[in-house]
Amino acid sequence: MSAMSDSSCPRKRVLIVDDNAINRRLAIAFVTRLGMDSAEAADGPTGLAMLEVEPFDVVLLDISMPVMSGEEVLARLRADSRFSGLRVIAYTAHALPEEKQSLVEAGFDDLLIKPINLKAVEAVLADYLRG
Fold first, then answer.
1. Does any domain span residue 3?
2. Which end of the chain has fewer CB within 10 Å, C or N?
3. Domain assignment of residue 1, yes or no
4. Cis omega before residue 115 (within 30°)?
5. What pLDDT score was predicted for residue 131?
């Protein structure tokens, strides 16, 4: 049982997985401004390794990365029951309607389009900000 009912609710934690350092820094700045803690990973395998050892509430996951794509990372997370409650948001510059549909069908909870802004980040994290 977690003590989520007390007023000292722990800050939500967001893992940002993106091979582009500037994109990571921007996302971290927005997440921090929204009152959440963040950590970053430069690739899929690093992100997965961090999720193994640290609890996160949300993952912002870049789709186009070397080594392991965002879809591959998501497939591993969705296949692992330990991560069943984890909210995974696709984070991509590719946003044609059919691409958005395929990302949702792949199991992503939401989609953030690059270049991101504070309003967009706040919109996809809104339910966590209230919680």
1. no
2. N
3. no
4. yes
5. 61
Residue 100 lies in a domain: yes
CA angle 91, 113, 49 (to 5 degrees): 5
Mean pLDDT by 10 residues, the chain (131 residues): 51 96 96 96 98 96 95 97 95 81 91 92 84 61
pTM above 0.70, yes or no: yes
Domain housing 107:
13-126
CATH, residue 34: 3.40.50.2300
Dihedral, CA of residue 45, residue 43, residue 90 and residue 56, to nearest 10: 60
Beta carbons of 76 and 106 less than 8 angstroms apart: no
